[in-house]
Amino acid sequence: MTGVPSSGIDDIDCEILAELQDNARIAFAELGRRVGLSTPAVIERVRRLEEKQVIVGYRTLVDPSKVGLPVRAFVKVTVAGDKLAKFSALVRKLPEVLQCHRVTGAESFMVQIAVRDMTHMEEAIDSMMPYVATNTSMILASPVPWNSILPAARYGRKPRPDKAGNT
């Protein structure tokens, strides 16, 4: 395998992961057909990937705009060293927060939020303010909203075509 040999996953595991990232609700029988394994064999491999915590969960991705949260932004947050833990605990509780990452550089965190409108954005940012200085960038579009963690090029294979047949 040309990927990361120390990870203990092989090419078939990579194919399983790629398929599950594309559709986590795929039936095991169909998954087995796509990767060339029997249903029991694919079930065992998925179970092993879960046990090794290569697969850490399954989620439904929801379009925020379809549930009344059409405005998204990245809030770059600068936090003093003694406030890092307090800020981390705070953002876990804020319903507007989609993602929060501790980062290097001038800021301490990158927080993605989804809100109804500018007033709601102001409220969300203000709720972070006791601990931080912020700089906000509005998200205009997301050409790659989420991508597979196992890019085909990393494993020496051709890119997988999208639903329209484009590679």
From TrEMBL:
SMART domains: HTH_ASNC (SM00344). GO terms for molecular function: sequence-specific DNA binding. Keywords: DNA-binding, Transcription, Transcription regulation. SUPFAM superfamilies: Dimeric alpha+beta barrel, Winged helix' DNA-binding domain. One of its GO terms (biological process) is regulation of DNA-templated transcription. Residues 9-70 form the HTH asnC-type domain. Coiled coil: none annotated. One of its GO terms (cellular component) is cytosol. This is Transcriptional regulator, AsnC family.
